Amino acid sequence: MPENLLQGKVGIITGALDENSIAWKTALKAKEQGAKFVLTNAPIAMRMGAINELAEECNTIVIPADATSVEDIEKLYDEAKEFLGGNFDFLLHSIGMSPNIRKGRSYGDLNYDWAMKSYDVSAISFHKMMQVAEKKDIMNEWASIVGLSYIAAQRVFPFYTDMADAKALLESIARGYGYRFGKAKKVRVNTISQSPTKTTAGSGIGGFDSFFTFAESLSPLGNASAESCADYIITMFSDLTRMVTMQNLFHDGGYSFTGISEEMMDKLSDK
Ligand code: NAI
């Protein structure tokens, strides 16, 4: 394993809920690679308490912030800057939630108040995090900002309902803000489109298990784990990827470019 890829870098990691979270694995790897960072999550997620154990393991603090609240984000950045002793080199947006999915509403029966909540939590919060960062001038030059997406932004996965639209918006925001932040401060912005992953957010989606197995048999490398996603995020935070920006990067074991696998054909044939 390469060492100290993030030595001297400081940042913020959102979305570590429990040890399965992509953000949780990212925090452990960021620490391993020499980064200093603050953890944050929605105040309601604090109740579970697990994030405090992670903070202890990473010698850091947790600052509660609802990512849909500009006021919370401002407070988060101010307190994080004080703790970290300077501006940020990386931000991870690892946040997603759809009340419609949670409550089993189909795409033809969306509750629009809930849909607005899905878009706000899962996509517009990404814009809010960047807009507040720009206004506070709190990113260092060549800083890296990453959000997490899913291929339902490009192709139809019926069970993903309003989250598909949220992810399309998230990816669009990465392009729009990537251009703006690149020009203003050489800050890069990308989304990573991850395989289905067994986390709280992932498993909450109807039919997740059968879809997980389907993606596993279609992808030549199999599904990408949360841990390997964390590895990819670390490379995106490192100086090795300085010229990559405004991209949606598939991290899915080859799923996105596979039409059908021999394994799937065998399963579907009557022989
Ligand atoms: P997770 O459930 O561990 O993480 C989601 C996080 O969002 C939780 O920590 C939750 O507390 C946080 N969150 C929800 N509302 C919030 C708010 N208002 N303010 C701040 N934080 C809030 O699940 P996972 O899978 O690690 O999710 C991370 C990201 O990866 C999400 O964007 C998700 O959509 C994305 N992703 C997940 C896939 C999967 O199959 N698990 C596949 C592709 C992308």
UniProtKB/TrEMBL annotation:
Pfam families: adh_short_C2. The keyword S-adenosyl-L-methionine does not apply. Gene3D superfamilies: NAD(P)-binding Rossmann-like Domain. The keyword Hydrolase does not apply. Pathway: Lipid metabolism; fatty acid biosynthesis. It comes from the Bacteria. InterPro entries: Enoyl-ACP_Rdtase_NADH (IPR014358), NAD(P)-bd_dom_sf (IPR036291), SDR_fam (IPR002347). Keywords: Fatty acid biosynthesis, Fatty acid metabolism, Lipid biosynthesis, Lipid metabolism, NAD, Oxidoreductase. It catalyses: a 2,3-saturated acyl-[ACP] + NAD(+) = a (2E)-enoyl-[ACP] + NADH + H(+). Its EC number is 1.3.1.9. Belongs to the short-chain dehydrogenases/reductases (SDR) family. FabI subfamily. This is Enoyl-[acyl-carrier-protein] reductase [NADH].
